[in-house]
Amino acid sequence: MAERRISSIDGKLAEEFAIPSHVEDVKEKMADFAMRHTEAGRRVVLITSGGTKVPLESRTVRFLDNFSSGRRGAASAEYFIESGYAVIFLHRHRSLYPYTRMFLTINMLDALQFKVTDGTAGNPSDVVVDQQMLPNIVKVLKQYQEVKEGGLLLPIEFNTLSEYLHLLKAAAQALHPIGSKAMFYLAAAVSDFYIPASEMPEHKIQSSNGPLQLSLNMVPKILSPLVKDWAPQAFVISFKLETDESILLDRACRALDTYRHQAVVANVLDSRRGQVVVVTPETQVELRLTEEEVQKGVEIEERIVSNLTSAHTKFINPVSLHLPET
Amino acid sequence: MAERRISSIDGKLAEEFAIPSHVEDVKEKMADFAMRHTEAGRRVVLITSGGTKVPLESRTVRFLDNFSSGRRGAASAEYFIESGYAVIFLHRHRSLYPYTRMFLTINMLDALQFKVTDGTAGNPSDVVVDQQMLPNIVKVLKQYQEVKEGGLLLPIEFNTLSEYLHLLKAAAQALHPIGSKAMFYLAAAVSDFYIPASEMPEHKIQSSNGPLQLSLNMVPKILSPLVKDWAPQAFVISFKLETDESILLDRACRALDTYRHQAVVANVLDSRRGQVVVVTPETQVELRLTEEEVQKGVEIEERIVSNLTSAHTKFINPVSLHLPET
């Protein structure tokens, strides 16, 4: 029964969601990345981040989207790297990016100024960053350059739901060989609905035809084959975002029950920056920032990552749980 | 009949699309901006740019969107300023922005490097732009700073369709006093469909309820009251994007016929960067870049703006058409 469901999801993926042409190349890149870092003693986390685009037309003018700036995924990537992980960052094109996210609220040209380097006529001006506008730039640029030199971050982009689904499957297969050393941190906001290619009009829907009726199918629950088939030894974290707090924990528990993965990070839209609950089959741990911490610029992602990396350690070495503390 | 339609659009706007709380402040700012520049002898163009977001839930997780990076609007703003216009840039939050758009294809942190200014211990490093990565930065930064000093660009942001509609109405009313000196360059990709607030669920739609049926109403055609009522003396340009070239010019002519404005810039999705047709009641002028021009970095927006600013001159001074050339 379970196996039938898995193969039917795999079949659906192949039939109804266009396969990106570069998926095999990307899979190889991810597998190499994972193997190299595992051999160097690092664990590897696959972070998904940003919303998915669901086209309404095959030559797409209109699409359905999910609210997500990609802030949580981008911030988490930084904390995972700080914790010693290598990160595959599977993110929506133009969503927030680790380190670079600091530029979000600023027009870069407002933060640049001319500085004449010497008196030589014809010598071009330096363009320098105004460090009053970007007070953290020295620290962040250093971190970014270290991460780049260490090859600790592998960015992979998606745009549509189809690309997301196929690239996630490829990632799961690419990380299979490293077993429990792999973590999946599925923070992307993935659409639950889509229009199958066969039912999609080719051209832009004409408004002169009157009001629009859309009939959307349910997206196959890819977490199911991911956990059971593609990366069965990995440590898998999904996210649950609701706007209605009263149903949140119930949904989170139900997801764990259905997919049998390790944890759900549950959060409510309005309070997601300061408060989440990490739900496992045995525990519900609330992580919450105080007002003071928020004002100091502490980020909830630091707490989430700290909680999950500890849990990942125990997951890899379950026996150490029973050793006496020294 | 026509008047009934106008007032019914106005009524619909007020009833079914939430009014942004800052709309009156923005209107005053736009009116001041327009008056100041008109008195200084400049014409004013209102550019709309980027796609609109149509929420599916009132606490929005999901939304409908329109494909648009905002490239056309942002590039056009620069050429209008070069042509002596002052620009109100009504754009989608985080869509491309004039001048800053040069950073689109680059990770800014890849284009920055440290430069130690002197040997003094503890003296902080300068962070400078690598001009090999951003070869135009000196030129663009100079332009940007001049525009800022001259106060030639007034940026206004929208996110949702509701914000767009109300802010465009406010802009039209704010520009009414300057009459034919105002141009409307409506390049935003505006949704044709929406879900009225009264039919919208409050909370995130649950996927466990099965497939999704969406019923979308048609967005009122705001061009109609804009041309007839809110800014009747202005020079108004709309845009028509199709994926099917065979219906493009017919749609453009039909729009001119319906709304009685001055021109439609018609373009096809796949070729829009190199080719458009400027359609007026009397003429259809094709603007097209050669391969060579594309490679040199010439932009079609330069041609569009040049065509329209000339037409605007004739529109303001129709009598000069009959003067002998000197």
TrEMBL record, chains A, B:
Name of the protein in its database record: Phosphopantothenate--cysteine ligase
Annotated GO MF terms: phosphopantothenate--cysteine ligase activity
The enzyme's E.C. designation: 6.3.2.51
Top-level taxon in the UniProt lineage: Eukaryota
Gene that encodes it: PPCS
The DNA/pantothenate metabolism flavoprotein C-terminal domain, residue ranges: 43-96, 178-275
Pfam families: DFP
The protein's enzyme class: ligase
Purpose: Catalyzes the second step in the biosynthesis of coenzyme A from vitamin B5, where cysteine is conjugated to 4'-phosphopantothenate to form 4-phosphopantothenoylcysteine. Has a preference for ATP over CTP as a cosubstrate.
One annotated GO biological process: coenzyme A biosynthetic process
